[in-house]
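Renewal narrative, Specific Aim 1. Our central claim is that a sequence can be written position by position from structural information alone. The example that follows is taken directly from our test logs and has not been curated for this report. It begins with the structure tokens describing the chain, in the order in which they were read.
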């Protein structure tokens, strides 16, 4: 017999051996010896009150063994000689599209403009130390996409778009820790994710798929409203049956190519702002109501904040406890910041994007002549502003949080995890009013919600501009582009995902659609 229970465990109890068995036996009114095992299905922490509680959803096996078979079995086939599906981009959407193609008996041919996970490291080092951005290999482009070296957070709200559990199980199949199956806010960590991504690539190759790095797509050959071939930067041309376009939200050249060829695009609302960085100890003390260091059983504390300011949402985005801020530019002449955390989340800083909702129909009047690319051009201009304010390198403009809100130039800045360095800049006056004005009011409100959050010990760093795509590539109900047969816009780049898991689910859906429509 198997019984599912909700169990609550306080911090003192959490340190005791077999506490879940003991609590389950009391709650069920049975002898503890009758419980074969307790399988944790879900785990979360409730720190809203001073007495911290661990919430468990468990399956209690009574005089019954735990099944040996996993919930999902992934059966990959040899597709060496099968019909081909071309996939542009090898981030989460592209990877899962490729894996799904193999499951369904089709050969994925993946074209990735960047390098593999090992070779990417040299280019990331060049950004951090030499301030040079390789436009094809950086924190956004390369094997695994933007998520590889910028955190690996797996939390998603996209529960209706596909089988979330299947995506998680597949990550475990390829080497992720089983903890991601039970944690309420699962996270792999930027130090562990590259190996998992390498395992996925090796599995694709093992079953006959192809993955081509340093292979940038520069043009589409179109005839009779159907995509016939792909042209590459090296001059080669590849004939195609179907193309899954999974290039991510930073592949501006793809948007510009489609726009130039009069392929239908739509401008899309998105959000922009800054990164805020606190000492992790401050966030721990606020969230856990503790003095000094947090208890060893507690993870680095996170937070989620939202405030309506002048009819727009101001909210935290991609919060990274125990993390680092990284330079996420994809071209020289721009500064973009993002956050990441190692698996242990043991760095001494906490950072989060704090961004403002922008309305594509109201906020970009000066950019209307750019049509569907108006949000993209606004995004570019803000990144150029940050580049110039930082001193025309990857040094980022920054300000103490209190100085930003109060409108003062910071005479000095706090220590930071951002490796290229910071330059004191008047971000309160440099940022456009639709962003800067709302951020200042938002931070003030956040300080009232989290006492201690509003502090001179925090820096704000600009700019957090790549939260999602400012462009939507439309598609029909069958997921094909309405004008171009054989093209399947996918994932974050198409405007259909907002993170690793939702992009992976969309990749699977696009693979299934491309195969169904052949």
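The sequence written for that structure reads:
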């Amino acid at each position: 017999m198997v019984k599912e229970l909700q169990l609550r465990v306080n911090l003192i109890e959490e340190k005791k051996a077999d506490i879940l068995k003991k609590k389950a036996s009391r709650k069920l009114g049975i002898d503890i010896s009758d419980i074969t095992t307790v399988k944790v299905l879900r785990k979360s922490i409730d720190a809203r009150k001073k007495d911290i509680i661990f919430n468990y959803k468990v399956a209690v096996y009574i005089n019954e063994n735990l099944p040996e078979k996993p919930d999902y079995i992934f059966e990959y086939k040899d597709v060496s000689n099968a019909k081909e599906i071309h996939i542009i981009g090898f981030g989460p959407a592209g990877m899962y599209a490729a894996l799904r193609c193999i499951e369904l008996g089709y050969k994925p041919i993946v074209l990735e403009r960047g390098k593999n996970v090992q070779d990417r490291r040299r280019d990331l080092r060049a950004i951090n130390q030499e301030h040079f951005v390789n436009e094809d290999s950086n924190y956004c482009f390369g094997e695994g996409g933007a998520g590889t070296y910028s955190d690996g957070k797996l939390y998603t709200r996209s529960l209706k778009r596909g089988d979330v559990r299947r995506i998680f199980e597949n990550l475990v199949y390829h080497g992720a820790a089983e903890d991601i199956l039970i944690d309420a806010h699962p996270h792999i960590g930027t130090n562990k994710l590259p190996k998992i991504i390498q395992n996925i690539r090796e599995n694709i190759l093992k079953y006959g798929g192809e993955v081509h790095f340093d292979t940038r797509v520069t043009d589409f050959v179109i005839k009779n409203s159907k995509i016939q071939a792909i042209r590459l930067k090296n001059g080669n041309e590849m004939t195609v049956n179907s193309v899954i376009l999974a290039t991510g939200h930073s592949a501006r050249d793809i948007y510009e190519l489609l726009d130039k060829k009069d392929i239908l695009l739509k401008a899309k609302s998105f959000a922009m702002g800054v990164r805020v960085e606190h000492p992790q100890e401050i966030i721990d003390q606020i969230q856990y109501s503790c003095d000094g260091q947090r208890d060893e059983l507690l993870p680095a504390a996170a937070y989620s904040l939202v405030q309506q300011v002048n009819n727009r949402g101001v909210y935290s985005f991609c919060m990274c406890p125990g993390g680092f801020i990284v330079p996420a530019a994809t071209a020289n002449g721009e500064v973009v910041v993002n956050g990441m955390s190692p698996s242990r989340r043991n760095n001494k800083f906490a950072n989060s994007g704090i961004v403002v909702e922008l309305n594509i129909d109201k906020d970009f009047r000066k950019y209307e002549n750019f049509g569907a690319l108006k949000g993209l051009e606004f995004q570019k201009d803000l990144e150029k502003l940050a580049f110039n304010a930082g001193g025309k390198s990857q040094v980022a403009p920054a300000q103490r949080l209190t100085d930003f809100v109060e409108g003062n130039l910071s005479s000095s800045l706090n220590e930071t995890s951002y490796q290229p360095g910071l330059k004191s800049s008047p971000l309160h006056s440099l940022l456009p009013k639709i962003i800067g004005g709302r951020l200042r009011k938002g931070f003030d409100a956040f300080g009232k919600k989290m006492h201690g959050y509003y502090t001179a010990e925090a820096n704000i760093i600009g700019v957090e501009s790549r939260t999602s795509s400012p462009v939507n590539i439309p598609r029909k109900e069958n997921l094909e582009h309405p004008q171009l047969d054989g093209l399947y816009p996918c994932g974050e780049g198409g405007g259909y995902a907002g993170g690793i898991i939702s992009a992976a689910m969309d990749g699977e859906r696009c693979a299934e659609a491309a195969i169904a429509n052949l």
